[in-house]
Amino acid sequence: MNETSIGEFDIKDPGLAQDGKRRIEWAEREMPVLRLIRKKFAEEKPLQGIRLVACAHVTTETANLVRTLQSAGAESLVIASNPLSTQDDVAASLVFDYNVPVFAVKGESTETYNRHVRTALDFHPHIIIDDGSDVVATLLKERIKQADEIIGSTEETTTGIVRLESMERAGLLPFPSIAVNNAQTKHFFDNRYGTGQSTIDGIIRATNILIAGRTIVVVGYGWCGKGVSMRARGLGANVVVTEINPIKAVEAVMDGFRVMPMSEAASVGDIFITVTGNRHVIDAQHFSSMKDGAIVCNSGHFDLELNLVALRELSLSPITLRPYVEEFALLQGGNRIIVLGEGRLINLAAAEGHPASVMDMSFANQALSVEYLVKHRGELKPGVHLLPEIVDTEIASLKLNALGIKIDSLTPEQLEYLSSWEMGT
Ligand SMILES: NC(=O)c1ccc[n+]([C@@H]2O[C@H](COP(=O)([O-])OP(=O)(O)OC[C@H]3O[C@@H](n4cnc5c(N)ncnc54)[C@H](O)[C@@H]3O)[C@@H](O)[C@H]2O)c1
Predict the structure, then answer these.
(1) Which atom of ligand 1 lies at the shortest distance from residue 347's CA?
(2) Per-residue pLDDT for the chain (425 aa), expressed as one digit of tens each?
(3) Which atom of ligand 1 is nearest to the CA of 157?
């Protein structure tokens, strides 16, 4: 832990700040919608006097979100939402160039990660920007008295929303929470195109393997799984999908992928990618039937999608072959299973996460959600809320505008037709 004029912070290396600043500014060029919001926020200062904690992947895009919130008058503190997703140069630049206290070090232990979550609560935020719901869950478990200080929270990812909905069902969620992930301008693009591209990017950066001709098993055909499957096929892979939802499974079949249960896919795949948000979707029996040299990774929010505890029990001590590449030799039969990025989100562990152009819309949703919560302070019931659809549409319109793409609008005649039941053929 270190201290400057902004108070305490915990980052890897202050000397990385200059590199971080250059990369933050590079990402900013690809974030026109967020830039527009920042300009508006700088004029209107809608977050004056608001203390805000951002628990996020500490990336160049997150830095631009934090700059946007700062321009609105908010005082922010940043922590990592995953022990392996911090970009240390960005963390340093946030501290030294933008005066934001950051508590995030790439590769931090689970204990340090949890300590940073508590540090975030010590900041006594009015708003929590969460990614995976660890800050809100810790508040419920350990700091419930602080709930009265919170105006509301926003949640970035699918897994976090699953947790918030479970808190809501149990009658435990004490404030409104905006499900940013559920905005169409978030999951249609970030989960599908962002995860699709960056997951494959992470695998290639970690291993430098050729994708063409490999059999890639994508576990889960939700928004992320669709994107990963699409991009893997684009590089020439034979894609196999596993699912538990019959509708998603039919969708995968009609999209042209082979679908089978994991018990069959385990012996067929060369590379396995989990994106389910669920626990132990690759388990002991699956590792045991994999080919020698099978590569396994996860791009879902938590590392528990792979049962790595079981894999450790089945194997000799792992050997690190390259950064983010560990080999586990099975005690029975000797097959080698290669695990990437310790089972943590491979796109953030071994690559840089989603490209800025897609995070532009996700973080426009975040910035406008925070403004919405503050504007409607005291009016929203405790529970999980969506941003109004009009905001979603406005973000898409701004994105199209920034891309220089025009679309049609309804003529008065068409408007009348669409609102009438009387006109048929
Ligand atoms: N890597 C990233 O940057 C990134 C980005 C966005 C979301 N996420 C995370 O990725 C995960 C998936 O998100 P999503 O938006 O695609 O969710 P989703 O709900 O759209 O899809 C998840 C899919 O997994 C399926 N599934 C559940 N259990 C399964 C099992 N045992 N076997 C096979 N399939 C199973 C579900 O039926 C569903 O279709 C979540 O944890 C989310 O938080 C990661």
Answers:
(1) 1
(2) 555 566 799 999 999 999 999 999 999 999 999 999 999 999 999 999 999 999 999 999 999 999 999 999 999 999 999 999 999 999 999 999 999 999 999 999 999 999 999 999 999 999 999 999 999 999 999 999 999 999 999 999 999 999 999 999 999 999 999 999 999 999 999 999 999 999 999 999 999 999 999 999 999 999 999 999 999 999 999 999 999 999 999 999 999 999 999 999 999 999 999 999 999 999 999 999 999 999 999 999 999 999 999 999 999 999 999 999 999 999 999 999 999 999 999 999 999 999 999 999 999 999 999 999 999 999 999 999 999 999 999 999 999 999 999 999 999 999 999 999 998 87
(3) 43
Q: Which atom of ligand 1 is nearest to the CA of 132?
A: 43
Query: How far, CA to CA in Å, does 315 sit from each of 148, 169, 282, 330?
Result: 49, 40, 15, 4
Residue 184: CB atoms within 10 A of its CB come to 15
In this structure, the residues whose C-beta lies within 6 A of any atom of ligand 1 are 157-159, 187, 191, 195, 219-225, 242-245, 248, 275-278, 281, 299-301, 345, 347, 353
Burial code of 278-310, b = ≥16 C-beta within 10 A, e = fewer? Answer: beebbbeebbbbbeeebbbbbbbbbbbbbbbeb
Only one residue has tokens 């969506």, namely 386
Contact, 50 vs 127, CB < 8 A? yes
* CA-nearest residue, atom 38 of ligand 1: 222
User: In terms of Cα–Cα distance, which of 106, 122, 15 is closest to 345?
Assistant: 106
Question: How does strand 2-4 pair with strand 7-9?
Answer: antiparallel
CA distance 118 to 135: 8
